[in-house]
Amino acid sequence: MKSIRFPLAAACACLVLPAMAAAEYPDRPIRLVVPYAVGGTTDIIARVVGNKLGERLGQSVVVENRPGAGGSIGSAYAAKQPADGYTLVMAVESSHAVNPNVYARSAYDPVKDFAPISNLADVPNVLVVNPALPAPDLAAFLRLLKAEPDKYAFGSSGNGGLSHMNGELFLKTTGTRMLHVPYKGLGPALNDLVAGQVQVVFDNIPSSNPLIQAQRIRPLAVAAKQRLKVLPDVPTYAEAGLPAMNHPSWFGLAAPAGTPAAVLDKLNAAVREALADPATADAIEKQGAMPSPMSRDEFGALIAQSYGHWKTVVEDIKFEKMQ
């Protein structure tokens, strides 16, 4: 009988220990890896949600910025950390859907190497132009592009970045042509947009909105489910006749693959509670973003779907992958 009882006891222990670990989790501070620089949209959302997450979990959530290579450095680092729930990572559209498709070799698999926890926020993208451009709306802008192909230039955060890919998707969707000018970040691109060195930037609301409100750049369309409170007079891409562009960027939370399901469930519940807090929602909305919590399965499906979408775009535009 002993030979039978021992395996049964061991099996029971295997079931009990993860539950006990989840019940005790977390018993020390949690690191939240942000694969982008301090002050950007990803960093801002991480700090807003991380603070509230820490309050609900009873432990500090410490943001650790590891920028570089369009999110590759920090994401690859996070993927290799212990799968114990004490290292989390901001999984965003740029790092987990675009980036792995524009490099010839990726240091991580955005689906297999991470355990999705939840989306945190949807961040609308916006098409902004220099105010001197004789295009008060998107229709007029398209007429300019079609009348004089390659006359105008759009700036981006860098070759292969999300702002570059959104620009390429726009050109393919509309059948127009513009020159692409890559910068080292959207800040320099926006500076040159204001100065008139480039005429267009495909940006996101948090970084563009201060310049929009100051009337130093002009918004023509936003990628959002509905018009934004901060830009009520600006139509969505869908309203303007370009539904293919009408997809806001997503900014979520993940852990290394293999993290116990019970821990992931606890984190998902804490995220939902944090985003339901009016102060947290208000802080996110002030950035021009929209809280968007999901189940773990829903967020995993979003990552996979978005990865497939950008894989197709990269193939369609015949983008030369970077080394």
Automatic annotation (TrEMBL):
CDD domains: PBP2_Bug27
Keywords: Signal
Entry annotated with the keyword Signal: yes
Signal peptide: 1-21
SUPFAM superfamilies: Periplasmic binding protein-like II
Pfam families, sorted: TctC
InterPro entries cross-referenced by the UniProt entry: BUG, Bug_dom1
Family: Belongs to the UPF0065 (bug) family.
Protein name from the UniProt record: Tripartite tricarboxylate transporter family receptor
Source taxonomy: Bacteria, Pseudomonadati, Pseudomonadota, Betaproteobacteria, Burkholderiales
